Amino acid sequence: MSWDRQIVLKSPAEIEIMREAGRINALALMEVWKAVRPGVSTAKLDAIAEEVIRSNGAKPAFKGYPGPYPYPATITASINDELVHGIPRPDRILREGDIVSIDCGTVFEGYVGDSAFTVGVGEISPEAQRLLKVTEQALYAGIARLRAGNRVGDVSAAIQQYVESRGYHLTREYTGHGVGRNMHEGPAVPNYGKPGRGVLLRVGMTVAIEPMVLVGTPKTRVLADKWTVASADGSLTAHYEHSVAITKDGPLILTLCEGYPFQPPEGAF
Ligand code: MG
Ligand code: MG
């Protein structure tokens, strides 16, 4: 990694712009969430997200992102054992009982909002429901530690403890990250670590917290399309993410809009 060395503190005015980027990203994700049902293709979900982002005067952040080849879509849609970076396709059809992770990034006035959720398609198994609940709660456990004076390791350890004590695994290969004018800035925020270690958190930092949870193993593999990352053993996975600013009053989630379905409990932070 090289992006993780560049930590950029944001002014209150910049954080307000990032809030708008995050709000538009949340609007796009909310419309995708409403459209998830058996029979819909991931390409259709991608088109919905792009329409919302562009109609709000913003641009997709993922499209063209460098990798094995430029990322070709607005969202990533990762089904069941696929953890992250699933490429939307017209022939990828959601089926009853699937779980699908949707990640999306928006650029507004030069600043990025980045967030993700996993949702069930129709009725899902109790095991899948538990995985989703634990991963979403792990996100909030991490965000709760995003306070000036804490260290990155406090956030990492909170996520790791929450997830691993419930019998699940976290990838070591992908991490949360600072976010701002670039989608990936410093500091890296791993989903594992030790309290009291790592970069000191300061007011004005903006970071994307994103637990990536696997049922059977921490190991992943990259599929033939060279982008999609799946669990090495084919077990289910889930991924939730918010972009968050560290303010003098504590963590401020940037990637929310009215009615957004994945919000921390009232008064959580
Ligand atoms: Mg993301
Ligand atoms: Mg991210």
Percent helix? 25-40%
Bound molecules: magnesium ion
Order of neighbouring strands in the sheet with most strands: 8-7-9-14-15
The CATH class is identified as Alpha Beta
The total of beta strands comes to 15
Cα(first) to Cα(last) distance is 31 Å
Helix-strand makeup class:
alpha+beta
Mean pLDDT metric: 97
CATH topology: Creatine Amidinohydrolase
Total helical segments: 4
| Global morphology | globular
Reading the helices and strands in chain order gives: HHEEEEEHHEEEEEEEEEE
Provide the gyration radius in Å.
Answer: 17 Å
Residue windows where pLDDT falls under 50 for at least 5 positions = none
Explain what the structure shows.
By secondary structure, the protein is α+β, with helices and mostly antiparallel strands. The chain has one domain: Creatinase/methionine aminopeptidase superfamily (Creatine Amidinohydrolase). The protein contains four helices and 15 strands. α1 packs antiparallel against α2 and α3 packs antiparallel against α4. One magnesium ion binds next to β4 and β5.
What's the topology here?
Blueprint: H1 12-35, H2 42-55, E1 59-60, E2 75-79, E3 82-84, E4 99-108, E5 111-120, H3 126-144, H4 152-164, E6 169-170, E7 176-178, E8 185-189, E9 206-209, E10 212-214, E11 220-222, E12 229-231, E13 237-239, E14 242-247, E15 250-253
Antiparallel strand pairs: 1-4, 2-4, 3-12, 4-5, 6-10, 7-8, 7-9, 9-14, 10-13, 11-12, 14-15
